[in-house]
Amino acid sequence: MPDATEEIFFSYSRSDEELVLKIASALRRDGRRVWVDQLDIAKGARWDDEVEKALKTSSCLLAILSPAAVASQNVMDEVSYALGEKKKVIPILAKACDIPFRLKRLQFVDFADDYDRGYRELSAALDGGAAPLRRDLDRPPVATGRGTQLA
Predict the structure, then answer these.
(1) CA-based angle 30:54:66, to the nearest 5?
(2) Best CA proximity match to 9, nearest among 74, 69, 81, 60
(3) Is the pLDDT confidence value at 58 over 90?
(4) Model-wide pTM > 0.85
(5) Which of 11, 12, 124, 141 would be a feasible disulfide site paired with 148, CB 3.0-4.6 Å?
(6) CB-based contacts of 78: which residues, under 8 Å, 6+ apart?
């Protein structure tokens, strides 16, 4: 059951907004509280003030990772803030990219190849559980430096 008090902050590059809005919509449908700049900053409000306020009040940050996101100073600043404040940070792999050093030690959720599986894994992670057992056991395991994962 979703924690109704937990607010989830999305940190992302605008080039990934389609996936972000899809995930945010699904999380809201599932009863979760999410904050996305495009949806939750009122017209005429100061963007930087609203982002800072949302970062402070959120308990979880989803770092949507792609080449554009890891190159974004804003995204990396938001991630650094959340990590420094000991907030839950869940990296979401939107597109293949080099995962920044500060996030490499965190298990990521892979949305790059399979949205439905990624969403199930994200929901489990938000509920504090492990990712559900993967059913694609016909592919051999591959060592990734973050444990063994399926290819």
Answers:
(1) 70
(2) 60
(3) yes
(4) no
(5) 141
(6) 9, 11, 51, 55, 61, 63
Q: Tokens for 92?
A: 């979401």
CA–CA distance, 58 with 111 (Å, rounded to integer)? 22
- Burial of 69 by CB count in 10 Å (0-12 exposed, 13-18 middle, 19+ buried)? buried
Residue found under tokens 């990219």: 97
Residue with the bigger pLDDT between 26 and 134: it is 26
- Predicted confidence (pLDDT) at residue 134 exceeds the cutoff of 90: no
Instruction: Tell which phi-psi region holds residue 60, choosing left (phi > 0), alpha (psi between -120 and 50) or beta.
Output: beta
Rounded to the nearest 5 degrees, what angle is found at the Cα of 144, between the Cα atoms of 140 and 147? 90
Residue 4's CB is within 10 A of a number of other CB atoms, namely: 9
What angle (nearest 5°) sits at the alpha carbon of residue 53, between those of residues 43 and 122?
Answer: 95
How many whole angstroms from its chain centre is CA 90?
5
* CA–CA distances in Å: residue 84 to residues 58, 87, 150: 13, 8, 31
**What pLDDT is recorded for position 38?**
86
